[in-house]
Design a protein that fits this description.
disordered C terminus, 17 helices, alpha/beta, 44% helix
Length: 468
Amino acid sequence: MTIDLTPYLSSQGPKYLAIARALSEAIRQGELTPGTRLPPHRQLADALGVSVQTVSRAYAQAEKMGLVQARVGSGTWINTLDDNREAEYLRTGEPRTESALIDLSIAHPVCPPTHHLRFRETLAALAEQASPEVISASRPIAGLSYQRERAGYWLRDRLGVPGDVEERILCNGASHGLMLAIATVVQHGDLVLTEALTDHGLIALSRTLGFQLRGVAIDDEGVMPDALDTACRRFRPRAVCLTPTQLNPTGATLSEARRDAIAEVLSRHGVWLIEDDVHALLESPGLTPLTARLPRQSFHVTSLTKATVPGLRAGYLTVPRGQLHHALPRLRATTWMATPLILEIADAWLADGTVEALAGEQRELLAERQQLAARRLDGHVFASRASSLHVWLTLPDAWRAEELRQQAEQEGVAITASQPFMVEQTPAPRRVRLSLGAEPDPERLDRGLELVARLLNEAPPPMLEIVY
């Protein structure tokens, strides 16, 4: 069968989506009726001047939208149109395969094939020489002693985190460490202060553990000392949870002078500090953690995940002296002990310098991607750092964050609006977070940034107007 979709084709968005939408419109207008067989992929590709792969993706998309049905050995046929399903699709965005969606939405380091190779090589080596304790350990709840010892040296020498081996706990990533630290000193109903915009994981954790979370004003550097001092006097929090290095989502990083001022406020109020230092390795050596200024009242949390490979969920929690016996029962209750094999890989990489090599490579890769983002977003206002995972983009007056997120998703790019990072229910900033690491292919990243830049220069479609 020959069909003409050109009257219904739009120039906006990926070609396969345009074809799927054209099929939808042709069905609505009666050009294509239920039970009609669509042309073979190659025939339609030749007619539209696109690749066979593009038509295949368009047919697959149309099937997900409920427009067509693929029958093995028979071809692709028009279904009976379900108006309710189509209306829902227009409201919520089109379903896509993961590979089709350009992902600028998730906090993810760049992970080129060389990283995968190193991981596999390390696993192969461990198969030959790993300590028997790695597979038989059950008693050392805080972690295998040699793994804790090496981690302790690295934390002290590379990150500047004070503490003895007895004060280090191995955990399954920074999120696990953060939960252990908070649960050690915060009870149900207690109040915890954090930055007004913060990682959504901490917000979810407050709901899980049942503590109150209140935001403190931030600026381009991060949390503001005067605002923190006022909040401590007014609310008398049980703890303060801060991310001084590359705050998610803004990328703000406290200067040494600002860190001194924050530490003075916390010392004066005698409040527990929980320092989320998960992005420490994305900065060159030199920044001193807040914990170094307040060792007796601080918990320090970090991991290797953001600077090496995402699957290396090796986390490190340093607890203040005298708190280990409070923290260990929480570790035992949540996971008994951190996974020894994962920490064995981390231990090997700490020993042979791979961690620092990968972290340095990560900083270089992110710097290249930040430069690409700066070129694509030229003329628009955004905050970033040279080695940050993200760009924190300010939107033109015409756009709201959720509107842009929806429209970008319609056109094949996933981004994150500001709402998930808001501690309190205040008007959402007209900002979106663009994450630069999840897409391993720089060309796909470039296409995604190009699409976002184009949308910024257009008015939002009427169907995306949102009433708050």
